[in-house]
Every structure is written in structure tokens, then in C-alpha cells.
Amino acid sequence: MLALLMRREISIAWGRGGGPLLAVAFLIAAASLVPLSLGPAPGPLSAAAIGVTWVALVLATLLSLDRLFQHDLEDGCLDLLALGAPPLEAVCAVKCVASWLVNGAPLAVAAPAAAIALGAAPSSAIQIAVAALTGGIAFAFVGGAGAAIALVSRRGGVLMAVIVLPLLIPPVIFGGALMATGSAGASQALALLLAYALASVALAPFAMAAACRNALG
Amino acid sequence: MITALEVNDLAVARGGRRLFEKLAFRLDAGRMLAIAGPNGSGKTSLLRAIAGLLRPAAGTIVFEGAEDSGHARRTACHLLGHQEGLKGSRTAAEELAFQARWCGASPAAAELAASRLGLSRLMGLEVHRLSAGQKRRLALARLIAAKRPLWLLDEPLAPLDIAGRDLAAELMSEHLAGGGLILAATHDLLPLPADRLEL
Questions:
Q1: What separation, in Å, do the N-terminal and C-terminal C-alpha atoms of chain A show?
Q2: How far is A153 from chain B (nearest CA, A)?
Q3: Quick check: A74 and B82 CB within 8 A?
Q4: Cβ contact (<8 Å) for A83 and B79?
Q5: Which residue in A33, B55, B135, B185 could disulfide with B43, CB within 3.0 to 4.6 Å?
Q6: CA of B138, closest CA in chain A: separation in Å?
């Protein structure tokens, strides 16, 4: 049953407004603005490359999650999903995983390219991709919780950003460390990032389901 | 299988205002109850409270004959609201197949239901290309594809043409004959005998 929902969510996400291309385009556009403000000198650019890419990736992920539940609430799908056999917590988790697959994976491919274009060392490409993939799980689940909580607000997108951004401070720090450090510190940063991602997978579905029930009522 | 729905001393509030209180009725298997009342009187909220989507401010809702668990209640009813829960970018066939399977039916049952509702030639179209009446027929197809005893219908006839209304009446009649229960909030006169509840 949940696999059925997963296929449907992926199909809808691919068909909606350019699908993952929108998030990737946002990442590239945001990264492209940096040389315009810092100037073309390679020193400052390469120093900022990883940090800028990581923050752009966070914002691109949030952009794709903005209306994760809003469409379903408006068109009556959330009613249908809530009256199915699987619990709403599982439904919410599947929607986040689908979002991660559709948006997180392409962003994880685009992020190293953006960072290297800004001056990061090409040898860091794999570390950046791993950080983006692992951090993407946390972004998807924490962002999903924010999107669900924002359902009751008319200014959902802004509210979601206000709710979610403070919660993303730990993965931003761990991910930044993972991408920037050498192999010695990388395993610690990866462990912390993974721990945060797993905690968000374990806890966020309950918050999302509670928020969706509140919006449905 | 639900043998009766019993509502006692029910109160529902929205935005801090009580829409109704001390509402009580009993609906036995094979019977239909038409809920009438002016706009904003709480017809839709009553249906959503019975479906378990809205927490009542007071009172009890008992599904006699069904296990008293969240899962049993979720899977005992179909709610047909103002919105059909369809995604415009997907085809009618994909959406009906998903909805039917999500509610526990097989893809074959979905195809049969589409044929019964006269939708077979439209199933390849994207949902956003369907008219409001065709979308309502697609939603009705979900009700007959996946068997659930309690139908909660919110203005079920509103977007349908005369043929569609006749067909909907036929489906409701068959559901009642099979021991089902129907609660319908409507401003229209229902084409079947029904008990009446005024909010």
C-alpha cells in the first residue's frame, strides 16, 4: 500500500511545475549570484564555495517542500489518505521519502558541480554528494514537519521557513564540517549528520501527522 | 460490518463557535439519513466528525458491529466531500486505480466501476480535462470499487446531470439493499426514501 503511495507521489512530483529541475535550477542560480557579490578573484570564492553551496542546497530543498501537504489539503487528497488503512504517520513519512528521492537526489548531484564551479577542490566532490544525500533526509523530514505545521496559516511558506530554519542549524553545521574537513574529521561529521537524519526520520512523522490532523479538523 | 451508527449528545465547534450540540440519532444498516440545514449549520462538519477527521467538542459516535479501533473506523467509511481528492496531472485511470487500491479494492474492481459509471472512454484523459460532473462520477466509482459499509456524502448530486443523478441514485439504492448505510448532506431532494435530520 505504501509502495503504491510512493509511486504516486513520485509521479506527481515529476509532473508538477518542472519537478526536481526547479530545485536544481534554484541551487545553480543561487550559487551563480555569489561571484557577482564577492568578485571573480579565486581566493574568496573558493573559501566560500562549500558554505555557500550548502546553504543554497538547504534553501532549494525548502523551496521544493513548501507545498508538500498544501495541495493535498486543498484538493481533498489528504481526506482520502487519512481514511486509508496505513496510519497518517506512515503516509507523511512516505511523502518525505518521495520528496527526498525526487528533489534530494538530483540536488546531491548538482551540489558538487556548483561547489566546484565556485572553486572547491574537485577531490571534495564525493564528500559533498554524501553530505547532500544524508543531509537531504534531515531537510526533507524536518521541512516536511514545517510544511505540515504551516498548513493552518495563510502565509504558509514564510511560516514554514521561520519554523524550519532554526531546526536545520545542526545539520547545516555537521554537513558543512563533513564537506570542508579532510578524511580525519569527516567520519565524525558524517556520524553526527546521520544521527540527526535518523532522529528526524523517527520523530518528524508524528509531528507531521498531528499537524495534518489539526489542519483536517 | 457495521450494523448501525449511533450518535449521542454530539457537539461540534469550529473557530470557537458551536455549530450544533446535543445532536443524537441512530442509523441502521440499509437506511439513509439526509442531513439538511442552511449554509454553515455544520452538515459537512458532522460528516467529517463521523469519519474521524474532526474531533467533536462533546458526545460519542459509535459504529455498532465494528471493532472500536482507529484502523477499523478509518476503513469503515467512504467520505465524498466537496473536493474529490483527484490529482489533475494524472489520468483518470491512474487516479481511480490508486484510490480504489488505497481503499482496499483491486485494479479489476476499479475498471469495472469505471465502466459502470460510463467513464471507460475517458480513462486515458488527465483529470484536469474532465468536467465537474465527470470528476464526481470518478469519485463515485471509487465508492463502488472499494466496498465500505458507511457512505458519508456531501452534496453528492450537485455537479451531476440528470443521467448522472439517476445513476447515483441507483448506486445508493444498491448500497442500501446490500446492508450499507448512507449519511448525505444535501440541499437537493434525494431521489430515494430517506430519514431526515435538520441542523
A1: 25
A2: 14
A3: no
A4: yes
A5: B185
A6: 14
- Cα separations (Å) of A41 from A36, A44, A46, A53? 11, 7, 9, 18
B86 close to A (CB below 8 A): yes
CA distance A117 to A124: 12
Any chain B CB within 8 A of the CB of A113? no
Q: How many whole angstroms separate alpha carbon A112 and alpha carbon A123?
A: 10
ipTM of the complex: 0.90
Q: Which residue has the cell 509502495?
A: A3
What's this model's pTM, rounded to 2 decimal places?
Answer: 0.89
- Cα→Cα distances A2→A89, A98, B79, B88, Å: 11, 11, 21, 21
- Rounded CA separation B168/A94 (Å): 34
Using CB atoms, pick whichever of A5, A75, A79 lies closest to residue B79. A79
Q: Does B104 touch chain A (CB under 8 A)?
A: yes
In whole angstroms, what is the distance from residue B128 CA to residue B8 CA? 41
Question: Measuring CA to CA, how many Å separate B194 from each of A161, B17, B34, B42, B175?
Answer: 50, 29, 6, 19, 13
CA separation for the pair A68, A211 (Å, rounded) = 13
CA–CA min distance B59, chain A (Å): 16
Residue A185 sits at the chain B interface (C-beta within 8 Å): no
Closest-CA residue of chain A to B51: A83
Yes or no, beta carbons of B98 and A85 under 8 Å apart: no
Question: With an 8 Å Cβ cutoff, are A83 and B103 in contact?
Answer: yes
Angle made by CA atoms A84, A92, A8, in degrees to the nearest 5? 70
Task: List per-residue pLDDT tens for chain A, 217 residues long.
Answer: 889 999 999 988 877 656 778 889 999 998 888 888 877 777 778 888 888 898 899 888 888 787 789 889 999 999 999 998 899 999 999 999 999 999 889 999 999 999 898 888 888 888 889 999 999 999 999 999 999 998 887 666 677 778 888 888 899 888 888 877 666 678 888 999 999 999 999 999 999 999 999 998 8
> Which three-class secondary structure state does DSSP give residue B125?
coil
